[in-house]
Amino acid sequence: MSLRVACGQDAKKISSLRIFMSDLLLPMPRTPMTPDRHREVARDLLAVVLITGLVFILSSAFELRERITELTRPLERYQIDELPLTLGVLALALAWFAWRRWRQATDELALRVEAQQALSQNEARYRTLFMENLAGNALCSRDGTMLLCNPAIARILGLPAPELVTGRNLFDFYADPALADEHRALLRQQGKLDVALLELIAADGAAVKVIARMLVGQESTQGAALQLYVADVSELQLMQRELGDALAENRLLSQKYLLAQEEERRHLARELHDEMGQWLNAIKLDAVSIRKYPTELPREVLDSAQSIIEVSTRVYDVARGLMERLRPVALDELGLADALQHLVAQWRRRNPDVACSLVVDGELSGFGEQTNITVYRVVQECLTNVTRHARASQVRLQIACASDARELSLVVADDGVGIEPSGKKRSGLGLAGLRERVEVLGGRLEVLSPPPHGVEIRVRIPLSDPRS
Ligand SMILES: Nc1ncnc2c1ncn2[C@@H]1O[C@H](COP(=O)(O)OP(=O)(O)OP(=O)(O)O)[C@@H](O)[C@H]1O
Ligand SMILES: [Mg+2]
Q1: DSSP labels for 405-456?
Q2: Rounded to a whole number, what is the distance in angstroms from the first to the last CA of the chain?
Q3: Cα separation of 272 and 275, whole Å?
Q4: Can you tell me which atom of ligand 1 is nearest the CA of 417?
Q5: Which residues of 371-380 are buried (b: 16+ CB within 10 A; e: fewer)?
Q6: Confidence class of residue 19 from pLDDT cuts 50, 70 and 90?
Q7: Helix locations, 272-356, DSSP H
Q8: Which residue among 385, 420, 429, 453 is best mutated to probe the pocket of ligand 1, counting the most ligand atoms within 8 A of its Cβ?
Q9: Beta strands at 136-140 and 226-232: parallel, antiparallel or unpaired
């Protein structure tokens, strides 16, 4: 069963280029010892027996041996009379020799038939792979005329059957004829072409996006010089676009959410400061005035007033800490660079055993509000993580942003125990939240933990408006 590829309209023109699967196969030998063969062998054996019998009859009738003996008697000194027996043995030996060769030929034939059958099975398998492949495969002539193709390519090109594809030129389906010329030239030069995205116009006029590989092969297979592999990625492209849109929408939402969160925190910090701070201060002042009361007060009252002063001072400190975490006042008042210095100084005070260095390379000014708060929050969370998880002796903070740079880079590295590479899911939200913040700004956050060198957090944030 050969896979015949019928040609389309221009059958005559391309008939000389048609390829048949059967052409790619070796000729199939006839099966050994068919009934015909058996009859032939029986006939030949009968001929041998008849000839031998005839020779015996003639020899007996004409006393041939006696005559030959009579004739060769003068040559007896040359042992001519021994020839009949020798010739008889030679005949037997030749018969044995022929039988052995026949056996050998039969075995070789059986092997060849076996190999041929395996080849046919393989051919059937490859044909199935070729025909059922979801990607389009085609063999083309050097000028791009498709000679053999599978149904997938017909589907991609909007044709109902592969037979309608053969004879048509691949480059005629290009949406951009200039690109077709370019590809022809490239194939001539380098013999191989991988196209990440190619737009074709199918027979029904639909635009199809494919990835393609073209290989120039040997011209041995009846003019098939070009192999073509294409996969339809139109749907994938569409999905990718939809995914991109969804991602952008998500980013916008996250951005709004983070802005709202920061606004809410700022509001809370202000409330804490203006309301709670004022009231605590008022309580403290009242207690101070009780202690300074001009007339002598009982000892218990003075002690209570003192304890109110201490408690209100402690609560105020806690509230200040809370305010600081909710909204780093220093960021608004001093700017990013000084706010970071302030943050690091506070952290050093709380962690005297860890050496913490902060290197700022460039000017940290002129960024947007969101970039400032993101950088601040990254440093804040990374330092908190070092305190909580790292058991480090050194932390290195490095911020680089040249005046004409298009991005800001930040590295926080410690020499602690590092992050366990175990696959178990972590419940912490700190790093995930940071990543979200950074990605909202179009940046990247990488967490590296090459054992045993602690953790290195690398952040890159693009600056949409590079400062000159
Ligand atoms: N510097 C570090 N050294 C060692 N392990 C770290 C370091 N930073 C983070 N980790 C590990 O990564 C995990 C995730 O950190 P992440 O900040 O996301 O969460 P968390 O700190 O556990 O909780 P939170 O939500 O309060 O931040 C931590 O639980 C810790 O195991
Ligand atoms: Mg954390």
Answers
A1: -SEEEEEEEE-SS------SPP---HHHHHHHHHHHTT-EEEEE--TTS--E
A2: 74
A3: 5
A4: 4
A5: bbbbbbbbbb
A6: very low
A7: 278-291, 299-326, 329-334, 336-350
A8: 385
A9: antiparallel
Q: Which atom of ligand 1 is nearest to the CA of 419?
A: 5
Question: Which residue is closest in CA terms to ligand 1's atom 31?
Answer: 419
pTM of the model: 0.56
Across the range 278-302, mean pLDDT stands at 88
Interacting residues of 389 by C-beta distance below 8 A, sequence separation 6+ = 416, 417, 419
Q: Using an 8 Å Cβ cutoff, are 116 and 28 in contact? A: yes
What is the token pair recorded at 209? 């996006």
Task: State if residue 429 touches ligand 1 by the CB under 6 angstroms criterion.
Answer: yes
Q: Give CA separation, 453 vs 59, 243, 253, 357, 391, in Å.
A: 108, 37, 37, 17, 12
Give per-residue pLDDT as tens, 347-365.
999 999 999 999 998 888 8
CA distance 113 to 28: 8
Distance 429 CA to ligand 2 centre (A): 7
**One-letter amino acid for residue 5 of the chain:** V
Phi, psi of 19 (to 5 degrees): -120, 135
438: Cβ contacts below 8 Å, ≥ 6 apart = 374, 378, 444, 445, 459, 461
User: CB-based contacts of 354: which residues, under 8 Å, 6+ apart?
Assistant: 348, 386, 392, 393, 394, 395
**Would you give the distance in Å from CA 463 to the centre of its chain?**
31
Q: What is the chain's Cα-based Rg?
A: 47
List of residues 6+ apart from 4 with CB closer than 8 A: 20
| Ligand 1 touching residue 426 (CB < 6 A) | yes
Shortest-distance Cα residue to atom 11 of ligand 1: 419
419 CB under 6 A from ligand 1? Answer: yes
Ligand 1 binding pocket mutation candidate from 419, 422, 449 (most atoms within 8 A of CB): 419
State the distance from the centre of ligand 2 to the C-alpha of 294, rounded, in angstroms: 52
Helix (DSSP H) and strand (DSSP E) numbers for the chain: 13, 10
Locate 436 and state its tokens. Answer: 């979200």
Interval between CA 426 and ligand 1 midpoint (Å): 8
Phi and psi at residue 356, in whole multiples of 5°? -120, 120
Segment among 26-40, 305-319, 444-458 with least mean pLDDT: 26-40
